[in-house]
């Protein structure tokens, strides 16, 4: 009997194990993840020296705001770095399909460095944020080199071999770049004739026989020059001596010297290649007052930007200022914060709940979700604090504002699909709503005629204005009459 | 022993439960469906007042024909309605990828109503079907308003704030709209400065601090003016008094007054905004005879349509008429039936079996299906009876005809990709096949020279012709000789 | 006790079965595959007479190289054939999305044959490889016919009805065609007014009532003329007598007679339709020396190619020659081998491992793979032997070379996205790297100044050069001094 009992107990134990097993299995299934998912989680790293910081999951963030850490390190060494944002559609496919073919990168070159020659299978536009350098373009017929500095815009056509030198002894050369791939949407590569650490020469793609015959040099030397990567050598940015810098940049011209020719009818490749400056060029549109400055180069005004339909903008806001609410008619802006922090506020009728978390696992159902159109009439509040190094997106048509509080704020932006785009302000002296007839305002906003007359006309500034806090006292003295109008109107 | 027995029986029971459990589990797995699938089946409704009629599954229909009930109610009230077709790619992805970025909507405003100011993140073109109204465009610099009536075409550029008034006391103002989104393919939104029932103001997206500082008004009033939706208030279409209409439309000009200036070189935004009329403008192409009228505005002739490459067409067929078989070289037409019913016949070499049912569940396999090209040489008969309120699609290259039987038939269409498009007729006096040499016709159609000479030249009408029934007697008297040619030719 | 023991053993057995069962279940889950996968494996074939050779899995091949057998037989008879490449994205979606909307076809018409009239829902460009023929365009207003021969380029606009005759008594008429669909990316169809074997007439899409009324012919004759396919009749290519050829081609003009008018301002459809010749037209760019010839028509120079942004190129290399390494700035070339074999070498920074095998089953994970960007800096060697009938792809930016060994080599190519494209050579007299300053070369390649000066300037030929083998003796006599420079430089 005792034996039987023992056996029975053992059996019960076994059975409960079996149960637990089956139960556990249920749990497993609920946690089921497709196997390729796990592979994806394994970080893919380039060989040492290029750490891929990876894509930071920012599950509580708005998809329009890319924090500094969202950048991937494409290259990093003591001589500088290249950081790149992932494809926008990777963040939110439904929201960013219209800018799928654009990529954003940030470059920094230390003093006395040289970025080696290369070309891209992409067109691109560069905006210099800081420092002094020389950029040189080489083709099989000519070469041209230009001094560049803060506010200079450089068009880099697809396939043009180019290199750059930081000519300053102390200040890093810092620039942002918008990249427009020509082969495949949102994908591009750099092509280097010379090998460097972690970067093979494109001549590696050719056999020794071909290289020997092509250069008319002995076959046995080809390997030493081009094969493999330079395991112990330098990266794509290299330290150069002041003498070498002098030699490298001796032919460089200052773009402003050739300013007048920009308007010439002879639109050859060199016109397109000539840099221009956002702060000094006449054709740049500007708004400016005590609270801020705004400079924008339109593709209609600059040959360099025309075929890409890209606009380039620079915004500088004083402490305690407001970039008055406005929207862009057709253009989406990809904006980079160069200095300070600000509050970014945007009204979006698009819903994006769960866009981020679900995207990789559930692409198609989500695509289906896009088709199930949201017709709720709801407006979503996009509010975020953006700081130096962050990127934010302002889609076309979306009313948008920026508020700087404790410090000056500087941002730069590339506008996509910028042909014939207009910026429409919703407040300030130039204000679409102030142009409504009084009766239209009354019927639209359901207010009396006195309120209708004053509602959109009380702001005396244009484009930039002081925040409430920064002029609270002033306003409270000035505006009691307006408040009584509202009281009068029954609010 | 009894105890042992009882224990054993208990164990057996437990084990069978375990078995059943595992078995049930198998069944579960076979019935496994991804959870998001079920979520999709839950209808998403806007708040009351906007019922989403939903997408009607028309499994036995041709994908080219959208019945009246396919429209979704985007807005509906006593003052009027806005109905919208779902994305074309939702109906048949493989057939309609080329028109993915186009949306079609129908508007109706009751007499004495006002459509409140708003803008879209989309370009659009409007064609007025019925009634009289005024459309006004407002920018931060100017405003312009125009009287519009039947046959008027209005270009609405992306981002331009606009509103409309039905100025007629008795007749609804009715128009169709083709919409070309600028942010994301096939997706767009409306942006309203003022709240209304079920529609939030875009100012809801901003904090009170920002709105107060922007408008220079007290913060405590901002909420009352802009937040939330107007739960007990009016919709986006509002009843207005005759006095208000007079006031709202006092600056409106008639587009025909400015007709001559349309040709001026100064192509500013106002030229683009100026409406034109399909029936009176010289640059409109027209065919006309006893059996029908056809009017078409090409993008080459109208600045308003040029950059969108959209054509606008109006067809009016008498009872018992035939729009002679023809095809468009590059343009796909999205056609709306405004009056009557007709038989739509089209020849399509594309197969679309199962396109509709499978699309949501098996998108990629179906995409694969597209790749497995149909090389059967088969031609599919697309025959459908289209009636008032329906939409039908005529893709480029597809031979197509319309037959009206018992009543007059009116349809209007927007042509997509309409630059340098030609319409080629396959029958009638102007007829591509009648221009073949006799020997080419003989070799091609395998007929004798007498048949070859008469086959494509016996129709005396162009563009529109009577149907067989409507002139049967006439023909039977006239054509015996031709029949004998065929007999002679061995048919 | 024994009974208890037996029961216990039975129970243990049952429990182990339950365990095994659960275990097996684990295995099942691991082998789980979605059911629709299996459906895909069922081959879809057209009706007999058109065998679909199908897509040859070339698992060990580079995706850039399409062997002769990759073509599908679209039509084949004693009178000739039409072969077509599958959609490029079917081979490698991530690599070829940029050329998704282009299709490539090869035509061959036997002597004394006629290709019946038809139109396409696609624009296309034809290049004649061999033979003599006449192509005729017919619209509902006009007709024009032209003699064509080797090197002639013919633009076929979308929707234009056309037919062709091989006018030579002995030589087949052979041409290649690039096709740009207008309805849906990468999909197009041919539309035939007349039925032939395995090909229905588009009039089959219409009812007899409509056809009878349209042509004004008796209804009972319509069926005999148009319905069904001509089961016992001829294909789309037909044998014609010398007399019929004479009659069919009597109005044909030679394009060169109208050469001067090509530059006229009157760019009507007939200018676009007029063929031009790659070997005789002045506006064609050419490189030529003892080792090869290269002719290229750019879209900037020819109205026929302008709106499609397609370039057409013809390469002819002598035995033992090298097309010096170069890349195209923006253009992807689709190249067809017309004669001989050559080694194709290309450097690609894109990885494509497993692209082919996985694509149909794992489309989305692979798309995810695209997003997980390869930042390894690795360059892939694409080396392949390409022979008559093969097609190879040269994407924009990719350094590329061709080596002919035992025979003359002829290839022809269509360049996609060819506006403002430049070809940059990496070796030879015109060579981008030879334009680098000496100091830039030294810093970039890590060589001494003597090597830097000679490295990219030792090749005296441009564009085409002899291979190593073909002038080994010459070089060895001439170049010892250069070798000693390298030794001196410490290599």
TrEMBL record, chains A, B, C:
Keywords: Signal. Gene3D superfamilies: Jelly Rolls. Residues 64-223, 276-453 form the Cupin type-1 domain. Pfam families: Cupin_1. Residues 34-57 are annotated as: Disordered. Residues 1-24 form the signal peptide. InterPro entries: Cupin_1, RmlC-like_jellyroll, RmlC_Cupin_sf, Seed_Storage-Functional. It comes from the Eukaryota. Seed storage protein. Belongs to the 7S seed storage protein family. This is Vicilin-like seed storage protein At3g22640.
């Amino acid at each position: 009997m005792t034996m039987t009992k023992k056996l029975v107990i053992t059996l019960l134990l076994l059975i409960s194990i079996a149960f637990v097993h089956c139960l556990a299995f249920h749990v497993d299934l609920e946690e089921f993840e497709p196997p390729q998912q796990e592979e994806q989680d394994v970080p893919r790293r380039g060989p040492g020296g290029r750490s891929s910081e990876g894509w930071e999951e920012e599950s509580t963030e708005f998809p329009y705001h890319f924090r500094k850490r969202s950048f991937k390190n494409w290259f990093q060494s003591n001589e500088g770095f290249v950081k790149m944002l992932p494809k926008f559609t990777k963040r939110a496919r439904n929201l960013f399909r219209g800018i799928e073919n654009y990529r954003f990168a940030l470059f920094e070159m230390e003093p006395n460095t040289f970025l080696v020659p290369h070309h891209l299978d992409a067109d691109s536009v560069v905006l210099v944020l800081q420092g002094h350098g020389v950029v040189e373009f080489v083709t099989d017929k000519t070469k041209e080199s230009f001094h560049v500095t803060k506010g200079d815009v450089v068009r880099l056509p697809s396939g043009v071999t180019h290199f750059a030198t930081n000519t300053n002894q102390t200040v890093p050369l810092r620039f942002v770049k918008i990249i427009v791939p020509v082969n495949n949407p949102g994908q591009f590569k750099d092509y280097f004739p010379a090998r460097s650490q972690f970067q093979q020469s494109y001549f590696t793609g050719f056999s020794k026989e071909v290289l020997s015959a092509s250069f008319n040099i002995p076959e046995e030397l080809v390997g030493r020059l081009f094969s493999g990567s330079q395991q112990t050598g330098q990266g794509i940015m290299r330290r150069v001596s002041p003498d070498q810098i002098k030699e490298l940049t001796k032919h460089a011209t200052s773009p402003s010297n050739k300013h007048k020719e920009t308007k010439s009818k002879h639109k050859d490749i060199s016109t397109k290649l000539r840099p221009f400056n956002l702060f000094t060029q006449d054709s740049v549109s500007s708004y400016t007052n005590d609270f801020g400055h705004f400079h924008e180069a339109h593709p209609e005004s600059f040959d360099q930007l025309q075929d890409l339909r890209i606009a380039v903008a620079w915004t500088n806001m004083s402490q305690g200022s407001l970039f008055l609410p406005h929207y862009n008619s057709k253009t989406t802006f990809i904006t980079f914060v160069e200095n300070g922090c600000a509050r970014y506020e945007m009204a979006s009728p698009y819903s994006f709940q769960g866009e981020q978390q679900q995207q990789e696992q559930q692409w198609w159902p989500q695509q289906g979700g896009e088709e199930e159109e949201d017709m709720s009439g709801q407006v979503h509040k996009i509010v975020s604090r953006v700081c130096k190094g962050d990127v934010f997106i302002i889609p076309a048509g979306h009313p948008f504002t920026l508020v700087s509080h404790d410090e000056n704020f500087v941002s730069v932006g590339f506008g996509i699909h910028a042909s014939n785009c207009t910026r429409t302000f919703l407040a300030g002296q130039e204000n679409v709503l102030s142009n409504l007839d009084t009766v239209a305002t009354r019927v639209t906003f359901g207010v009396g005629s006195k309120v209708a007359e004053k509602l959109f006309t009380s702001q005396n500034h244009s484009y930039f204005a002081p925040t409430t806090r920064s002029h609270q006292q002033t306003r409270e003295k000035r505006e009691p009459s307006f408040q009584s109008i509202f009281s009068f109107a029954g609010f």
